[in-house]
Amino acid sequence: MPKIVPVDARGFDLFGDFIGLTLIKCENGHSQYVLEVSDRHLNPLRTAHGGATYTMTDSGMGAALYATLDDDELCSTIETKIVYFRAVRSGKLVCDTKIIHRSKRIAVLESEITQGGRLIAKAIGTWSIFKTREASNASSSSY
């Protein structure tokens, strides 16, 4: 049975909470995060730090995939490639993520960050899907 990802619930994604991410939607292998860019997100050039937008994609991918997992499964990033198209100084960023391929142990996801309909960044990531320790310990008894 797929897991439930709490939408707009503080405490689910602690780092996302720390930088100000808000999960708007998460269902059927798709998620949407929003970030209101403020001074705390700016780099020395006074544009949004790439780490803030990367975090949007990573959190978006994690949420989209997590919602499809069975109760005894977890997931983790293997790698992500991100391309930045435009600099942002302020305003609302929207990150839409979808699963583009999923097998039993690997998933590939795609995220697009937009602002007012303009493409800001695009990322593709590969994720690992694995059984939780409790489930694997129970099934690999040494008795």
| Strand tally | 6
The level-1 CATH class: Alpha Beta
Mean pLDDT: 90
Q: What distance separates the N and C termini?
A: 29 Å
The major β-sheet equals:
6 strands, antiparallel
**Could you spell the SSE succession in H and E letters?**
HEEHEEEEH
Quickly give the structural class: alpha+beta
Arrangement of strands in the largest sheet: 1-2-4-5-6-3
Please give the count of helices: 3
What is the fold-level CATH name, i.e. the topology? Answer: Thiol Ester Dehydrase, Chain A
Unreliable stretches, pLDDT < 50, 5 or more residues?
138-143
Count of individual domains: 1
CATH architecture: Roll
What is the general shape?
globular
Radius of gyration equals 16 Å
CATH homology group: Hotdog Thioesterase
The helical percent reads 10-25%
| Beta fraction | 35-45%
Short account of what is shown:
This protein is α+β, with helices and mostly antiparallel strands and 143 residues long.
Q: How does this structure look, described?
A:
With 143 residues, this protein is an alpha+beta fold. The protein has one domain: Thiol Ester Dehydrase, Chain A (Roll), CATH 3.10.129. 21% of the residues lie in helices and 43% in strands. Strands 1-2-4-5-6-3 form a six-stranded antiparallel sheet. A hairpin with a 2-residue loop joins β5 (106-115) and β6. The chain is globular. The model is unreliable at 138-143 (pLDDT under 50).
